[in-house]
Design goal:
It is a single chain. By secondary structure, this protein is α+β, with helices and mostly antiparallel strands. 57% of the residues lie in helices and 19% in strands. The protein has 2 domains: 88 residues; 82 residues, 2-Layer Sandwich (Alpha-Beta Plaits). The protein is built from 3 helices and 4 strands, in the order ααββαββ. The chain has a 4-stranded antiparallel β-sheet. A hairpin with a 6-residue loop joins strand 1 and strand 2. The radius of gyration is 48 Å and the shape is rod-shaped.
């Protein structure tokens, strides 16, 4: 077969073919993008509306929880304040540690083990009760005498029945404080 086209014309036709192919491809791409946007726009608007509604609910819940947490916090603080008021000692009274625990600690030896201390405030005289275990009778007597020599106590009562045993003696000493 005879070749009727020159090389230059063949190149022009080939370039024109490629150009038309690109134009058709781009036309299809534009058509697909346009079709996709038409089909996706309703979903986009629906999603945007749902996001706005969800954000409004989140804001309302945050506001409600802030108000609740503020009220809960105020209630908790009031409760703590009431509980702490139990520990406040009026300025005209001494604390139990000043009246009872510190003098006991000053005279207690390693042979005396304190298991309990109670303190009673009365109108005329305040009393304390010291419970514990002494390793021997001599240690208990020395502890009792040291308490009697303390100027804060007007009376120190060690029952004789507590001295019945020789070792590992359970004791219960009643002390009465001097009124000032």
């Amino acid at each position: 077969m005879i070749n009727l086209l020159t090389e230059k014309e063949k190149k022009n036709i080939e370039n024109e073919y490629k150009f038309r192919l690109v134009i058709v491809g781009m036309g299809f791409m534009v058509g697909i993008i346009f079709s996709a946007s038409i089909f996706l726009l309703p979903s986009y608007f629906l999603s945007a509306t749902k996001v706005e509604n969800a954000q409004a609910k989140v804001d309302a819940l945050k506001k409600e929880s802030d108000e609740k947490s503020k009220a809960d916090l105020e209630a908790a603080l009031a409760d703590i304040k009431n509980k702490l008021a139990l520990f406040v000692i009026p300025k005209n009274q001494n604390s139990i540690s000043d009246d009872l625990i510190i003098p006991i600690e000053k005279v207690k030896t390693n042979n005396i083990k304190i298991t309990g201390i109670s303190y009673e405030v009365a109108d005329k005289n305040n009393t304390g009760n010291i419970r514990g275990v002494a390793t021997d009778r001599v240690s208990l007597i020395n502890f009792s005498e040291a308490l009697k020599n303390n100027p804060q106590f007007s009376n120190v009562d060690l029952p004789v029945s507590d001295l019945a045993k020789n070792k590992q003696i359970d004791f219960n000493i009643l002390v009465t404080f001097k009124t000032s």
